[in-house]
Hints:
Blueprint: E1 3-10, E2 15-22, E3 30-32, H1 33-39, E4 42-51, E5 57-70, E6 73-83, H2 87-95, E7 102-104, H3 106-111, E8 114-117, E9 122-125
Parallel strand pairs: 2-7, 3-6
Antiparallel strand pairs: 1-2, 1-5, 3-7, 4-5, 5-6, 8-9
Amino acid sequence: xxxxxxIILIGxxxxxxxxxxxxxxxxxxxxxxxxxxxxxxxxxxxxxKIISFSEHEVEAMEAIVKEIILENVSLKYAVVAVTNIPSxxxxxxxxxxxxxxxxxxxxxxxxxxxxxxxxTGKLKKAPAFIL
Length: 131
């Protein structure tokens, strides 16, 4: 079962709230470039490539979101990947009833101490361990 979650992104310009796909195969959370520009994200200057669901390699830029709220957990100054999400991927996301502009990745989940539960399709709290 796909895991979905409510997420709020707060940038320098606006706040954006949606239901997004939780993708345990994606390291960084992804924000579409048009939304990133509306939010007013701050770019770090780091550029890299990511491979989309449709197996296209796309350029991405690292940016800082002022605050992400995920399952009532506030994450200040969260790092995300900003890219032009391909239309084929946006269509797949829409088909599954999630927002086409945001994908939640592992770094965001780890920082919030959350894990995807594929049995329920929701996120659940995970204890933090110190070894």
